[in-house]
C-alpha cells in the first residue's frame, strides 16, 4: 500500500471466470444494434429549418414512417468504436488468409485519396477540369501494362470478379467477331479454381468443365490437351495457382489453347507473387485481372471495395470496354461510348460498358501511391519477400504439419490435414484455436483439391520475428492436437468476442434485418 | 523500403533454414527465359516525393467544393460529417477482410446487419443484401435476377433510366442473347412504359426520380408488370430522395436498386460507391451478393454471420446466382454511420433542404430568357432546355468557375433531342450566392 491506503500491487488474486453483471469483459464491451441504442426521433446532425415552401414532389410525398433511429454524435462514435473492437485486422497482427493477400495498407495511400482534387471530384466534371484524374488513370495504366507486359488495360472493373467478367466478355466479343461465338461455348478451368471462375464463365453464357490436376498440384497438360477442341472458347487458370504453385507448363498450356483456337484467361489474384519478376504477357496470357486490393495494397475494408483492372492482349484489346482514357501529348480525353469508339476506326469493337462512370478511382489513387512509393525495385522485392516468407513458414512448420505438395511454394504455403489424422481435431478446430492464440486463421477448406486444406499466405509485410512467433504458436497447437487435447480444440475459440456461431440456424430461418419487438399485448 | 520489414541478414538466415542458396531458387518453376524481366518503370520514392507528385495531379482537377457546383446524374455532392471518415479509417474496419471468421469479425457483421436493416426500411422492401459494387452493376444484377425468377428473356428499360445504367444492363443481358429494349430519352418523364409490357417481359426498369429529375407514381407500372407476370425493378440514384419521396416498395416494386453514394461517400470521380439492393422476401434465394444474418453462439449469445451462401460463387461455383464476391464493405460502413447520425429526423430534414435548394435554383434559372425548366415535378434535380448546345455552355461556365450541371451531350452522344438539355442538381451544399452566380453567368452565356 502507498501512503493513501491505495493498493499499488495486486495480491490475493483468485482466478475466476464468473460472468460480469454487464456481460462486458473489460475492454470487450457488448453493444446493441443502433435500432436498440438509438431514438427513432433522434438525430446527430444540425440542419437549419427548411422554409416550408410548397412541395413540387407531385403528390409523391413520403408520409408513412420510415423507421430509422438517429444517434447523437457521441453515441454514434461510441457505438462504432465498440463494434470495431470486435474485429481482427492486419494492423493488429498476421492475417495469413491464403489467396486473399492481407498485406500492410500504407496510410499515405489514404491521405492522397482524400485530396479534394480526387475525393471531391464529380465523375462528369468537364474534361478540362478533370485532367489530373485522367492523368492518374493513364499513369496507373502505364504501370499495369508494363508490369504485366500487356498492350492494353481496361480500368473500369469494380473488383476481381468484375475483372474476370471483363476478360471473359472480351473473349466472347472476340469470338463473335470471328463468327465462332455460337460454336465455342465451353470454358475449361481447374478444379482448384476460385469459385468466381466458373461463376463468371456461366454469367457470360459459357458452360464449364474441370481440368484435372496432376499429382504435383498443377494443371495436367496431357488431360487439358485431350479436352481442347473447336467448341472451347478458352481456359481460366490462376497462376501462381491456388495451391501456391507456379504452373511450370504455363507456356505449353498457352500454346495448346491458342493452337486450338481458344483464349487464355489468367486469374491474377496471385499476381503479387510474381509482380516485378515475370511479365504475364511473356507467358502467353490473353487477359488477366489485377486485384488492386491484393497486389497493390488498397485496403480490403471488411470485404470491399475492390478494384479489378484487366490487362488484355493484342487479340483482345479491340474489344475492351468503354470508357477509356486516351492521351495526346499533355491532354487526356475520355472515350465514353461505344459509338465514340467506333469513330476511332480500329478500336471500334468495344463490348460495351461494365459500370457507370470510370471505375474505382479511389482505389486507383491508392494503388498508384503504393507503386510510386515502392518503385519497380520495391515491387520486385515485395514479391521476393512474400515468396521467401511463405517458404520460411512452410520450412518451419513441416516438422509437425503436412505440406500438401513437395518442393518450394510461391507466396502461400498449402497444408492438408494428414497431421491431424486420428487426433479428433479437424481443420476448422485448428483454425479456431489459432484465434485464441491471437491470430486470424489461414484460409481453410480451399482449394478443394486438398483434404482439409489450410492455405497460409504471410505476405511480405511480416517481419521474421512475427513469423517466428506465428510458427511457434502453430507448432505448439499441432503438438497439442497430437497429444489428445481434442476437446479444447472443439471448444475454441474461448477468448474471442463470440464463441462459435450457429451458421446452420442462421440459414434455416434467416433473420436479415432488425424488426421492432412485438408489444406484449399485441402478442397475446 | 519502408513497407518491407525484412533486412538482408533476415533473408540470408531464412534462405538457410529453407535450404535454398538464393531467392531465385524459389522461383525455379518459372520459365527461366521469362524470369527477372526488364521493366521500364521508375524506382522507389520517399513519402514526401509521392505526396508531392499526386498532389500535383489533384491540383489539376476542379473539386466540387471549389465553387458553385450543380452536377448530379448518378453522383451527388453532399456534406459528410467528420465522424464518418474517422470511423471508416479505424484499423479494425479499414484493414479487416471479409468476415469469414465470424468470432473475430462481429464488428463488420453487425454493421452489415444494420446496413441491411436501414436499406430495407429506406426502400420500403422486406430484405436487402450487404451491397453491390454500385447502382449500375446492381441494376444489371437485378435484371439477371428477374430472368432467373420469370425464366423470360425480354427487358424493358424506361427512357428515364441513366444511360450508363441502361448500357451496363444491356452489356450483361446481351451475353445471354436477351432482348433489352431501351426507350428513347424521355425528358418529360411521361412515356407510357406500361403499354410496352407483355407476357414475354421479364422485367421493366424504371428510375425514380429519373435521370432528368422527374418523379412518377410507379404504381400503375407495377400493376401492368404484375398483370403480365413481369417484375418491376425500381432504380434510385439519389438516396437522399428516400427521405422525401414515397418509397419504391410502397409503390409496388419487386426489386429496388439504388446508388448509396449520397449517404456517407464522397464523389471520388465515380467510385468506389455502394449499390443498395432490396427485394421481396419471396425472392430472397434468387438474390445476388452477400447477406448477413442473425444467429447465436455456443453460449446462446446473439451474433451475426454471413448466411445463405449456398447462393454464392465460393460454394455453388457454376450454379451461383452471380459471380460477385466483393461487396462495398467500407462504403457500406460509411453509409451506415452517416445514416445513424441522420436518423429519420435528419434524413427528412436533409431531403427537405435539398428540395428547397432545387426549387430556388429552378426558379432563378427558369426566370432567364430562353431557359425553360421542363419538369412538372422534381426532388433535387431538374432539367433545363437551353437555346444553345448545353455542353458548350457548360464548358464556358466551367472556365468561369461554375460547374453548371451535366449536359445532355455527355450522356447521350450526338442526340439532337438532348443536346440542348442541361441537368442540374442543387443539394444542401448550394448557397444562395452560388445560385445567384450560376444564374448571372448562365444569363451572360446564352
Question: Keyphrases for this structure?
Answer:
heterodimer; A: 524 residues; alpha/beta; Aspartate Aminotransferase, domain 2; Aspartate Aminotransferase, domain 1; 2 domains; seven-stranded mixed beta sheet; four-stranded antiparallel beta sheet; 16 helices; B: 446 residues
Q: Would you kindly provide a written description of the structure presented here, covering whatever features stand out?
A:
The complex is a heterodimer of chains A (524) and B (446). Chain A is built from 16 helices and 13 strands. Chain A folds into two domains: 261 residues, Type I PLP-dependent aspartate aminotransferase-like (Major domain) (Aspartate Aminotransferase, domain 2), CATH 3.40.640.10; 125 residues, Aspartate Aminotransferase, domain 1, CATH 3.90.1150.10. The N and C termini of chain A lie far apart (59 Å). Chain A has 524 residues and is α/β, with parallel strands linked by helices. The relative contact order of chain A is 0.12. In chain A, α3 runs antiparallel to α11. Chain B is of the alpha/beta class. In chain B, strands 1-7-6-5-4-2-3 form a seven-stranded mixed sheet, sandwiched between helices. A four-stranded antiparallel sheet of chain B has the order 10-11-13-12. In chain B, strands 8-9 form a two-stranded antiparallel ribbon. In chain B, α3 runs antiparallel to α10 and α10 packs across α13. At the A-B interface, α2, α3, α4, α5 and α6 of A face α1, α2, α3, α4 and α5 of B.
The CATH class of the largest domain in chain A, by name, is Alpha Beta
How far is the first residue's CA from the last residue's CA of chain A? 59 Å
The biggest beta sheet of chain A reads: 7 strands, mixed
How helical, in percent, are the residues of chain A?
25-40%
- Summed up, the domain count of chain B is 2
The CATH C-level class name of the largest domain in chain B: Alpha Beta
Residues in helices of chain B, as a percent range: 25-40%
Instruction: Work out the helix count of chain B.
Output: 13
The percentage of residues in β strands of chain B lies in 5-15%
Query: Would you tell me the structural class of the helices and strands of chain B?
Result: alpha/beta
Radius of gyration of chain A over all CA atoms, rounded: 27 Å
Strand order of the largest sheet of chain A: 1-7-6-5-4-2-3
Query: pLDDT under 50 segments of chain A (min length 5)?
Result: none
Give the oligomeric state of the chains in this entry, treating copies of one chain as homo and distinct chains as hetero: heterodimer
Count of alpha/pi helices of chain A: 16
Largest interface: A-B, 206 and 210 residues
